[in-house]
Specification:
Length: about 525
Amino acid sequence: MMGTNLRRKTEKNDAMEEGVAEHNHIHDKADIRGDEKNIAILFFLYLLQGIPLGLCGSIPMLLQNRGVSYRQQAEFSFVQWPFSLKLFWAPIVDSVFYQKFGRRKTWLIPTQYMMGMFMLVLSGHVDHWLGKENEKPNIEMLTALFFALNVLAATQDIVVDGWALTMLKRCNVAYASTCNSVGQTAGYFIGYVLFMALESAEFCNGYLRSVPSNEGILTLPGFLYFWGWIFIVTTTFIALLKGENKEKVGKGEELNTDIRHAYKLLWDIVKLPSIKTTIIFLLTAKIGFSACDAVTGLKLVEAGIPKEKFALMAVPMTPLQIFLPLAISKYTVGPRPMDIYMKAMPYRLAFGLIAACLVWITPYIINNGQVPMYYFIILIVLYLIHQISASCMFVASMAFFAKVSDPAVGGTYMTLLNTLSNLGANWPATAALWFVDPLTLRQCSTDASNDCSTLAEKQLCTSTNGGTCIMQLDGYYIESLLCLIIGFSWLRWGKRKVNFLQARPISAWKINLTRQNR
């Protein structure tokens, strides 16, 4: 009995010592010496991940020029789903691997090889599937293939998120968020903005050529062929030259688990008290921004801003998205990365009110479809300010996720937190779009009793003496005010919860594992 008690006491002391060591280690000051190559590798892996994401943004533009219906565009939009569904196979990626080859490389190498081969196959047939001359685009084939490509990209994301936790020294794991943000943005910029510019004959003839041509400098088959080989060649180098540094992982953190146990671990993560609080936090944090983020752009276009000119605003925003995380990361590397998140939040909430004012004055500025240059300058400056606050919150949250994620199930842990963060942005945006019309007050010009609240009433108004539905109060403004009130009310609660979560020891974020499971 004494021996049992002594053993339990020893194990408890070991656990306490390990917990203290982990707690102190995670709060060490960042020191990138020795991690420079690892940071460069992570950046490049995230850049590769952004290429198919950018292409999936480019394809709808190409399809639009080929006269496809919006229903077909909606069908193709399913290619974006894998990044929202990857949580379902993340435990498999974490639990099934070949020990001698490496836990992360077991998945990374074949996944990136398949991505490269997919691109090579697409390069030979994509023109036909997009529809040449009088041919109709094969939306079903394009959707299936790009969906599969994004499944691979989402799998690569799981692997790289997990590998980042052990590739970098523990005191530098917050740099993983910078690599993620900068690398993925750079890849998306190449696959979307750069490709669309160089694929356009008008852009190339106007800015890059002295002799006009009917085609752009780049073609989609050529772009896919080039990056297909880049994937294959660089993956070969990683397979041969980059090992997994298991010595950087604490005792018992890298686990050999079966698939069933991996899903049990996922459930165990969700049951952690710290994670329960985090779930509520992430699912409610962005309610205050929903009207601004989801509706403002549409309202500006509705007010008269040409869609193509509004889309060009992405060009000055993209470099900012690349360089801002680099500047912000030095403030998020430390024990309290979410302090930056909470400091940026009031400015982002206030921007919602500014955006509503901008929407209100826009119809008075535009004259016969002509938008003054000074208006675009103001618009770009305001969106740059918005991007700063949004980037602060994104980088801070990613740094926090990297800090608290248990490397034992790193890919699953990071994916869970990222999924919750994405859901916390998606459902308020959907709700904001959904409630604009119900909150909008209208009245028929020829029938005061008709509030034009339904399609039937709108049709009745227009068919009665040529009436029109006059907007008395735009629901967008009501939403903007409600979001502002909800956002600042939430901020008081959120500050307390952030302080609580950041004060928790690292052991509070780890799963209790028996020695048999290690």
